[in-house]
Amino acid sequence: MVTNTPKALDDLFHDMLKDVYYAEKQILKALPKMAKAANSAELKKAFEAHRTETEGHVERLGDVFEAIGKAPRGKTCDAILGILEEGKAVMEDYAGSPALDAGLVASAQAVEHYEMTRYGTLKSWAQQLGHKEAVTLLDATLAEETKTDELLTKISKSTNSAAVAKAA
Q: How far apart are CA 104 and CA 118, in angstroms?
């Protein structure tokens, strides 16, 4: 049922917070599968490290919920489900292929970019809403997601080269 009750930015902030909370929990489930599928030791290590970091993101989001006086709760995020489904398809379609790791990096970066947009937006809204503690918490996660994306870009140079060399 659609209501005509106007919703405030605070409502939108809370909804998107639930969205990213759900997304982080789904990512936690996907990272071990990605680590297992990766051929490169460096990429496996990066996925394993990011899983530990993602556990921290979930905890930190719990702190954000607490800071705004809400219970931590997720809301189905179709966007992350689609991105993760694409990653699963890469793992299936390129299993045993020299291009697998390059595809895994691309899939992981799609996840990181989604998270970076969400955390950047949430941080901005938290600033506008005067949620100072939430700003600090969201900024910490945004910095970690950005650092992970930069690491994946670095790893992609070797995974892409390996894929080209083995295909030649």
A: 21
Per the rule left: phi > 0, alpha: psi between -120 and 50, beta: everything else, 113 is: alpha
* Full pLDDT tens readout for the chain, 168 residues: 556 778 899 999 999 999 999 999 999 999 999 999 999 999 999 999 999 999 999 999 999 999 999 999 999 999 999 999 999 999 999 999 989 999 999 999 999 999 999 999 999 999 999 999 999 999 999 999 999 999 999 999 888 887 777 665
Specify the pTM. Answer: 0.91
* DSSP secondary structure letter of residue 98: T
**Cα–Cα distances in angstroms (integers) from residue 22 to residues 16, 29, 77, 144, in the given order:** 10, 11, 7, 18
